[in-house]
């Protein structure tokens, strides 16, 4: 389990330009600018295929830049060797940016991504009630993992491992 409850944004690789910001294990972002520490209010990204929480930072160069909170969480709390291209929410709640809700990342091959896109499109054309692409990927991956665990008889071992942590 992670021992650190918060990290300075500027001490995260790739975010050195953003002084005076903290992030905690629950996904809260704090500004140290001004006389008081204040929690920043996140906002929804205006992207129908990727509707996640974002925050704005002001860099050393005085320019404002937006960041997805779950990606900041990945950079702050997931060891670099475990980082990949994707961050998924374990409980599928897009508002929950806590460390415990970020599932381990993995890299999908282009072939697999293309197959998932085709299946998503086929579901839409058939009139099935499916979520947007990123939600669909989460759904498909969850079902596949559950099926794999059942087929390999891993439920008891997984239960034990989850309760050890």
**Can you tell me the overall shape?**
globular
Q: On the 0-100 scale, what is the average pLDDT? A: 81
Percent helix, as a range, is 25-40%
Structural class: alpha+beta
Radius of gyration (CA) equals 18 Å
Structurally, the number of domains stands at 2
* Model regions low in confidence, pLDDT < 50 over at least 5 residues: none
CATH topology of the largest domain: Homing Intron 3 (I-Ppo) Encoded Endonuclease, Chain A
- Determine the number of helices (DSSP H or I, runs of at least 4 residues): 4
How would you summarize the topology of this molecule?
Elements: E1 6-8, E2 21-24, E3 29-31, E4 38-39, E5 43-44, E6 53-58, E7 64-68, H1 69-77, E8 88-89, E9 102-103, H2 110-126, H3 133-152, H4 155-164
Antiparallel strand pairs: 1-2, 2-3, 3-4, 5-6, 6-7, 8-9
Can I get a quick summary?
By secondary structure, this protein is α+β, with helices and mostly antiparallel strands. It starts with 5 loop residues before the first strand and ends with a helix.
Question: Descriptors for this entry?
Answer:
18% strand; alpha+beta; three-stranded antiparallel sheet; Homing Intron 3 (I-Ppo) Encoded Endonuclease, Chain A; four-stranded antiparallel sheet; 4 helices; 165 residues
């Amino acid at each position: 389990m992670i021992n650190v409850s918060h990290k300075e944004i500027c001490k995260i690789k790739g975010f050195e330009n953003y002084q005076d910001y903290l992030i905690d294990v629950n996904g809260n972002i704090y500004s140290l600018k001004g006389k008081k520490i204040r929690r920043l209010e996140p906002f929804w990204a205006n992207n129908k295929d990727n509707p996640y929480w974002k925050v704005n930072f002001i860099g050393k160069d005085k320019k404002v830049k937006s960041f997805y909170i779950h990606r900041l969480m990945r950079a702050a709390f997931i060891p670099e060797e475990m980082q990949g291209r994707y961050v998924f929410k374990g409980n599928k709640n897009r508002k929950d940016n806590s460390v415990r809700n970020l599932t381990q990342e993995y890299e999908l091959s282009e072939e697999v991504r293309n197959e998932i896109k085709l299946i998503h499109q086929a579901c839409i054309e058939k009139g099935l009630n499916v979520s947007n692409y990123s939600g669909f990927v989460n759904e498909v991956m969850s079902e596949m993992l559950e099926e794999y665990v059942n087929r390999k008889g891993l439920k008891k071992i997984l239960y034990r491992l989850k309760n050890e942590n």
